[in-house]
Design a protein that fits this description.
There is one protein chain. The chain is mostly helical. The chain has one domain (about 1-150). It is about 75% helix and about 0% strand. It has helices spanning about 1-40, 50-70, 80, 85-120, 130-135, 135-150. The longest helix has about 40 residues, at about 1-40.
């Protein structure tokens, strides 16, 4: 009963991520276009546009990594696994899953600490605290952990 709910929830989260990535890329493109028009059209560059585009790019990257996790799109070294007997292949895949989950848990924990510390700083050109850009790290790690956990419930899971 819980499995179908989690699978549907995971798919819903992935759809929200895809829409969010599209909106963030649109915003990043708009900021960059505004910078080009301001600099070359009016001779007065926007001092905040490069920083805003950088933070948008970080968010796109972290949410995109989570979406790639859900879709099985991350690069994997499977050359060794293909030459192992089936039982060993499962052990190697499970070990890789544990290492990935451990890394993401570490990234989540340190990302939360870093975001809290960054909240004491202010952006150089934007009227915001720096915790917002830094929150991309723990949010992305949490989303990847969610997708990784739910992938174990999918029929094609190792």
């Amino acid at each position: 009963m819980l499995r179908p709910f989690l699978l549907r929830f995971d798919d819903l989260v992935a759809r929200v991520e895809a829409v969010l990535i599209g909106l963030l890329v649109l915003a990043m493109t708009g900021v960059t276009l505004a910078q080009v028009v301001a600099r070359y059209g009016f001779g007065d560059p926007l001092i905040w546009s490069e920083e805003a585009a950088r933070y948008l790019f970080v968010w796109v990257t972290m949410i995109g990594a989570a979406l790639a996790m859900q879709q099985g799109g991350h690069y994997a070294l499977d050359a060794l696994g293909r030459h192992l007997p089936a039982p060993m292949r499962s052990v190697v895949r499970f070990a890789a899953l544990l290492v990935t989950a451990g890394f993401l848990a570490l990234l989540l924990g340190t990302g939360i600490v870093e975001a809290r510390q960054a909240g004491m700083q202010f952006s150089a050109t934007l009227p915001m605290e720096m915790d917002l850009p830094y929150l991309a790290i723990p949010v992305g790690a949490a989303l990847m952990l969610l997708h990784l956990a739910v992938s174990l419930l999918r029929p094609s899971a190792p």
